[in-house]
């Protein structure tokens, strides 16, 4: 995770525009699992999620019943998510809730995003 983050950041440093690097610890589905209320809003029903940080979830990729993040998200939604569903989750999500539940990779991403946004809004 850190190596990918650093490689992306090193490549972006060559440019002159502000940037933010966001690399999930394991996979983006972990971030999507970070706010249960947002998932319930998108799913239109109550959802059951494993405890602990979604970033640390892991399971057998070939076992649909495992805690592999893609499988957990699919079970929560009763369907395989697509770009539109990810956008709906993001729109409904409380980013601070996700940051608290995904402190390894989402929290630093959110902090960097907010710092960069504040710089961009203060430049004339």
Word description of this protein:
It contains 7 helices and no strands. It has 124 residues and is mainly alpha-helical. The model has no long low-confidence stretch (mean pLDDT 91). The protein has helices at 2-12, 28-32, 36-43, 69-77, 83-92, 95-101, 106-122. The relative contact order is 0.18. The protein has a domain at 29-114. Helix content is 54%, strand content 0%. Helix 3 (36-43) crosses helix 5 (83-92).
Rg measurement, Å: 16 Å
Question: What is the tally of beta strands?
Answer: 0
Average pLDDT level? 91
Uncertain spans: none
Secondary structure category: mainly alpha
Strand content: under 5%
- Total helices: the number is 7
**Can you summarize the main beta sheet?**
none
Summarize the model shown.
By secondary structure, the chain is mainly alpha-helical. It has seven helices and no strands.
Compile the SSE list and pairings.
Layout: H1 2-12, H2 28-32, H3 36-43, H4 69-77, H5 83-92, H6 95-101, H7 106-122
Helix pairs in contact: 3-5, 6-7
């Amino acid at each position: 995770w850190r190596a990918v983050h650093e490689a992306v950041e090193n490549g972006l440093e060559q440019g002159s525009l502000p940037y933010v690097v966001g690399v999930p610890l394991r996979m983006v589905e972990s971030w999507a699992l970070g706010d249960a209320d947002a998932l319930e809003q998108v799913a239109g029903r109550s959802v059951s999620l494993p405890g602990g940080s979604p970033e640390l979830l892991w399971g057998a990729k070939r076992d649909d019943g495992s805690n592999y993040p893609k499988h957990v998200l699919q079970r929560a939604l009763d369907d395989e998510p697509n770009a539109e569903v990810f956008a709906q989750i993001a729109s409904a999500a409380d980013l601070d809730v996700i940051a608290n539940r995904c402190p390894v990779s989402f929290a630093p991403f959110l902090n960097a995003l907010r710092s960069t946004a504040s710089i961009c809004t203060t430049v004339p």
